[in-house]
Design goal:
286 residues; Aminopeptidase; 10 helices; 35% strand; elongated
């Protein structure tokens, strides 16, 4: 299925895309901002990814990624604003999502969504040349530690992690008197793109200010940099303590972007045909 729109006498075509090479080449234009999306091109994540793309006169100008899961799901957009608008109009149409977009691209999102307010996010990155190790006594977590890890995360996160998150990723923790009080891990890793994404950094509120977050984040980063060229993470721009933790490890700011909860404009049944086409791609739904 493809949809055609016209802007300034030029044709924009928006449709689904399954060409990973074309997507990778486009995302590599800003690989640090697109790090999550590049990692989602790996086989493990690909099956859960729904991609849309827009072309202007045969030139790929924009992409959007909707990651499958419980609503609200993540949504990533990148590229030309008219192209993003066309994709969100015709191809990628979640009712509710958490969108990641550069500030200028958020205007295209607002054509179809009500955008909740929120602080801007900072995409930070580090490589081997800039990384500053933080020696400490941390331990690598194993899948058998998932219960203790989720008890810690229950203090600050609204979701739980399966044991496979530890097995498939990299997690380190800090224990005090046998209790896990600080941890950090990975969201996604791409061996082919040589990128890693750090996340799930949390320290028990009674143990903050002791350098534990720096220690566990540093341990995760050090292990990722053995095989990755760059490691990235997100942090809210209004969280100076966290920004200082990452700067201490050598992380640098790449770009500020918006990560907002968005709600589709219009009645919910307007999206039913496109949703059914995605579930039954070989049938025409009128």
């Amino acid at each position: 299925m493809a949809a055609v729109t016209r802007t300034d006498q030029r044709t924009i075509v928006a449709r689904q895309i399954a060409d990973r090479d074309a997507l990778r080449a486009f995302l590599d234009r800003d690989r640090l901002f697109a790090a999550y999306a590049l990692c989602d091109l790996e086989d493990r994540e690909w099956a859960r990814s729904h991609w849309g793309a827009a072309w202007r006169d045969d030139e790929l100008i924009a992409v959007a990624l909707e990651y499958a899961g419980l609503s609200p799901q993540p949504l990533f957009v990148m590229g030309d604003g008219d192209g993003i608008e066309a994709i969100l109009r015709h191809v990628v149409r979640p009712r509710v999502a958490y969108v990641a977009a550069l500030p200028d691209d958020l205007l295209a999102v607002e054509s179809h969504y009500r955008v909740d307010p929120g602080a801007s996010m900072v995409r930070m990155w580090v490589d081997r040349a800039h990384f500053r190790p933080f020696p400490s006594e941390v331990r690598k977590l194993l899948p058998s530690d998932i219960g203790e890890l989720n008890r810690l995360y229950g203090l600050g996160f609204a979701s739980w992690l399966p044991a496979s998150s530890i097995g498939d990723g990299v997690y380190y923790g800090m224990k005090v008197s046998g209790q896990l009080v600080s941890a950090a891990g990975t969201h996604v890793i791409s061996p082919s793109a040589r990128l890693g994404v750090v996340g799930n950094v949390l320290t028990h509120h009674q143990f903050r200010g002791r350098g534990y977050a720096t220690a566990v984040t540093g341990a995760v980063t050090a292990e990722l940099l053995r095989t990755c060229d760059q490691v990235v993470l997100n942090v809210r721009s209004d969280n100076p303590p966290a920004l200082n933790v990452y700067r201490r490890l050598g992380y640098q700011e790449h770009v500020r972007f918006d990560e907002r909860l968005i709600h589709r404009l219009g009645p919910p049944w307007a999206d039913l045909p496109s949703a059914l086409r995605r579930l039954f791609p070989h049938k025409e739904i009128d």
